[in-house]
Amino acid sequence: IGGHTTTATADRRRRVLFFPLPYQGHINPMFQLAGLLHLRGFSVTVFHTDFNAPDKSRHPAYDFVPVPVRGCLPKGSSDALQVTVERILAVNRACEAPFRERLASLLAREDVACLVADAHLLTLLDVARGLGVPTLVLRTGSAACLRMFAAFPALCDKGYQPAQESQLETPVTELPPYRVRDLPSTTSACHGVISEVISRLVTAVTTSSGLILNTMDALECGELASLRRDFGVPVFDIGPLHMLSPAASSSLLLQDRGCLEWLDAQAPASVLYVSFGSLASMSAAELVETAWGIANSGYTFLWVLRPGLVRGSQTSEAAPPLPDGFDAATRGRGMVVSWAPQEEVLAHPAVGAFWTHCGWNSTLESLCAGVPVIARPCFGDQMGNARYVDHVWRTGLTLDGVLERGEVEAAVAALMAPGEPGDGLRRRARELESSAADCMTKDGSSCTNVDKLVDHILTL
Ligand code: UDP
C-alpha cells in the first residue's frame, strides 16, 4: 500500500481544475472527463455552483470548491429555453467575483496545470486566464452544432433567424443538412439573448488553448475537419466519454435502479424506452397524447416521467399524473419511473428503441448502444441533433408537428415492428455502434486523442 501511495502522490502533483455548467447534460460529460484525466495521473478539483451541486460523496478522490449563485438566478418560467439561456448568463455574472477569490487562493497552494470549463462559462475562463491559468474548453454538444453556432451570426445576417413560421422548411444552403427549423428556435422574443449566448460560446472556444468535444471521428469526421480548419485551436474529439471514462454517476436525481431488474425479465429488443432528459418539457395535453400513444401501440415500455416534465404543473417535486385508465390499459407491460440509470438502460438487451428529445448525451448514448430512436426535439441544439439522426446517420425517425396519439402509435410501431423501416434503422444503429467501438480501441481516434490531450495539458 505504501508503494502505491508514493507512486500516486508523485504522479498527482499536477492538478486540473474543472468547472461544469450546472445542468445534468453538462455535468455528466465534465465528470466523465475528470475521471479520464484522473486515471491518467492528474489531481482533480471541481469548482461547482451551489445550484445543482454534485454529490461529493460519489467522488472521494476529488477536491470540491463550491461557488455561491443561489438567489442570483432567474426563476423558472414556462419557456424552458429562455430561462436556460438567462441562467447561463446569470451563472457567469454571479460566479465571477467568488470564483476569482477562490481560484487565487488555490493557486497559492497548488501546482495547477489548467482549467477545463464548460464552453458556456466565458467569464470564468477569462478570470482564470487573468490569473495566469491556461484554459481548455469542454463543449458538451456535437461538432456539427458548434460549427452551426460559429456560422450563426452570418446566418442571421442572411435572414434565416429570427424565422417566420413560413420559412421553417427552407434549407440552410450554407450548412447542409440544416433547415431553418433545425436552427436554435428563435422565433420568440429571446432571439437577442440566444445570439449573445451563442457568440460568447464561440469566443470561449476560440480564445482557449484547446477544445475538447464529446464526439468521435466515426460520427462527425467532416464537421471535425471543418472545426480544425476554422477555429485555430487544437481540437480533441474524445467521445463517447460515458464509455471511455471510469467516472461514477454524477446524476443529480436519484436513479431508480429497479427498472434494470424489470428489464432483465423482458424479451430481447422488446421494450420502448421513453425519456426527454432533464430540461425539456411538454404541455398537459401533450402528456395525455404521449400516454395514449404509448398505451395504444401495444408495446412494452419503460417511461421516465420526470417531476417538472409538464409545464405549469402544480408542483415540480412530484411526477405528473397519468390519464385515468392508463394504468389499467397498460397493466403488466410497462414501467414508469421518475429518473432512470439511462446509460445502463440503453445498453440493456431488452431495449429495442428509444423515444428521445435528442439532447446530445442521449443521442450519443443511443448511438453507442446501437439503439434506434424516435426523435422529438424541443429546443436549442436538439433539432440539429434530430436532423443528423434522421438524415445523416439514419438511425431514427423524427416525430414533429402537433403531438397526437395516432402519430405516436405509428412511430412506435415503425421502430419496433419487424420489417422496414425498423430493420434498416436497427441495422444502421448497430453499424454506428461498431464504428464507435472502433474509435475506442487503443489505436482508435478517441483513445489517440486522449493521449494527445494529456500531452497537450503537460505542455501548457
Ligand atoms: N439521464 C439519466 N436518467 C434519465 C434521463 C436522462 O441519467 O432518466 C441522463 C442521460 O443519460 C444523459 C443526461 O441525463 O447523460 C441528459 O443529457 P442530454 O444531453 O441527453 O439532455 P438534457 O438533459 O441536457 O436536455
From TrEMBL:
It comes from Zea mays. The keyword Transferase applies. CDD domains: GT1_Gtf-like. GO terms for cellular component: cytoplasm. Pfam families: UDPGT. This is Cytokinin-N-glucosyltransferase 1. PANTHER family: CYTOKININ-N-GLUCOSYLTRANSFERASE 1 (PTHR11926:SF1529), GLUCOSYL/GLUCURONOSYL TRANSFERASES (PTHR11926). InterPro entries: UDP_glucos_trans (IPR002213). Belongs to the UDP-glycosyltransferase family. The gene is LOC100283506. One of its GO terms (molecular function) is quercetin 7-O-glucosyltransferase activity. Keywords: Transferase.
